[in-house]
Amino acid sequence: MESTRKDDVVKFENVGLRYGLGPEVLRDVSFNLRAGSFHFLTGPSGAGKSSLLKLMYLAHRPSRGLISLFGRDIATAKRNSLPAVRRKIGVVFQGFHLLEHLTAFDNVALPLRVAGTRESDIKRHVEELLSWVGLKSHMDARPPTLSGGQQQRVAIARAIITQPDILLADEPTGNVDDAMGFRLLRLFEELNRLGTTVIVATHSRALIDRLGYPTMSLENGELTKLPSNEGGLSNV
Amino acid sequence: MFNQRTDLPLHKDPSNRFLPWLIAFMIYLATLATAGVMALDGLLSHWQAGVTHTLTVQISPNASEKKTEQVLSASLNLLNRTHGIAHAKAVPHSEIMTLLEPWLGVSDTVESLPLPILIDVELLDGVQINMERLLKDLKKIEPSASIDDHSVWLERVIRLTQSIQILAAAILGFIGFATIGTLIFTTRVGLAVHHSVIEVLHLIGAKDSYIARQFANHALGLGLKGGMIGIALAGPTLLGLGYLSSRLEGMLLPDVTLTWIQWGGLAMLPVLTAFFASITARLTVLGTLKRMT
Questions:
Q1: Residues sharing a CB contact under 8 Å with residue A14, sequence separation 6 or more, in sequence order
Q2: How close B8 gets to chain A, by Cα (Å)?
Q3: Strand partners, A10
């Protein structure tokens, strides 16, 4: 069992997850993540990486165990208290989950509008970020007219527009070339330097080796490599 | 209002095509029913005002014309002296014949019929008359005298009018329930259709109220649109009915046209409907999302 620290933003204790009556896709997952840490989440396909991220961005509640985000017990939290927690978490979904009827600009603006930000501020922030990810000329384009890589960049821009406390990314560089993938991860690093806790689920060994951040590994729904809270690696 | 930006593609829903027309139809019926209630109310007040200040005294004809004249004179004398009576006058024979003309026609035989003497009595405002005593005094002059204060007729008319008003109110209620039921159904369909978008909105931190507001604003727009179509169709219908009733006016009905205030009330129906549509959509969304995990 990991010891709890004051600056832990994510804490899992013996967490299990099953969908319906199916088998457990996550079993006895326990770990803590310190605020401002950067981790890669690796593991073979079907190991439970996406399910673990879903628990972290509150798409599902665990079947058992305790989850605490920002020091708050999430497993038993009331439904109406979850939006405030979700606003602190930016997510790059594996399937992007962009709203096809909205423009790239409006997709990126969505978290700010949900949070009640003024339109003048929204315009400034969104234009700046879309320029940064190389989509300034595609602000009015709708997702179906964008390439996979462009959609991915819109999804990333939407995830980080609010400068979230936690950034969860599920294969965020899968559809972009190496140069753009590296550029996007530098953006994550920049956010991390500003205090955002980053977890990136990826298969890319090259990316992990290049950036050198600690990894968490999942196999058959169990954590086989715990996160390092000191910057180094800790094996189970 | 209609072009308000939404994160949900509600403007593409199939219900956008039929819902305004359904609301328009409901508003059309509701406007006619409400106008009917208002017109009946006016009619009833008019009748009440017309008969509560009058009495009719009826005296059977006497064999001798001279005796009849004496009875009439004595009766008028008594009535005009009675406290609370403003004025009493005999209904002229020609007027009685005019009243009977639609049923009996015009002929010498009708002219020779022994018709009762009718006396129209106008009462003073706010003065109570002792009817029993008045009738007793009249009977001293002529035992066949009787007084009709129209209470039986008025009671029947009031009962009939109230029954029609209750029926109209029930129709309004049914219209309201049908509209609300349709709105709940279409809102739930909308929630199911846009489930994936709503999920994304939730995951980026949208509260249920944020999503409900979008449905509510959309329903408000549709309600206003449908309401305006409905009132635009109901207006000419009401004016047409008013014109037809005014042509009957001289024969059967008093003025049954609506006042400006009543027209104003009817014009508020689309606004009220849009407001209730908005509230219904909002509560439906909040209720449905609350049941989701």
A1: A28, A29, A30, A64, A65, A66
A2: 8
A3: A33, A69
3-state secondary structure of A71: coil
Shortest CA distance to B276 belongs to which of B128, B133, B177? B177
For residue A107, the tally of other CB atoms under 10 A from its CB is: 27
Residues of A in contact with B202 (CB under 8 A): 83, 86
Query: Inter-chain contact A106–B293, Cβ cutoff 8 Å?
Result: no
Which of B8, B204, B213 is best to mutate for the A interface (most A CBs within 10 A)?
Answer: B204
Identify from A53, A102, A161, A166 which residue to disrupt to test chain B contact, counting B C-beta atoms within 10 A and taking the largest count: A102
Please answer yes or no on whether B204 and A111 come within 8 Å at the CB atom. Answer: yes
B204 touches chain A (CB under 8 A): yes
Chain A residues within an 8 Å CB radius of B207:
80, 83
pLDDT digits (tens, 9 = 90+) for A197-223: 999 998 888 888 888 899 999 999 998
In chain A, which among 76-95 make CB contacts under 8 A with chain B?
79-80, 83-84, 86-87, 91
* d(C-alpha A137, C-alpha B181), whole Å: 46
Interface of B with A in 263-292 (CB under 8 A): 290
The predicted-structure confidence for A59-110, as pLDDT tens digits, reads as follows: 999 999 999 999 999 877 888 899 999 999 999 998 889 999 999 999 999 9
Where does residue B161 rank: exposed (0-12), middle (13-18), buried (19+ CB within 10 A)?
A: middle
Structure tokens at A21: 């009556």
Rounded to two decimals, the pTM is 0.77
Listing DSSP states for A12-61 in one string gives EEEEEEESTTS-EEEEEEEEEEETT-EEEEE--TTSSHHHHHHHHTTSS-
Find where tokens 């806790």 sit. Answer: A197
Residue with tokens 């009018």: B161
Tell me the chain A residues in contact with residue B201 when contact means C-beta distances shorter than 8 Å: 110, 114
Q: For residue A57, list chain B residues with Cβ-Cβ distance below 8 A.
A: 203
Delineate the domains of chain A, giving CATH numbers in brackets.
36-58+79-225 (3.40.50.300)
Q: Cβ separation of B203 and A79 shorter than 8 Å?
A: no
From B274, B276, B283, B217, select the one nearest B24 (Cα to Cα): B274
**Type of residue found at A64:** R
- Whole-angstrom Cα distance, residue A14 to residue A223? 11
DSSP reduced 3-state for B121: strand
Q: Is the ipTM of this complex over 0.85?
A: yes
Share of chain B above pLDDT 90, in %: 37
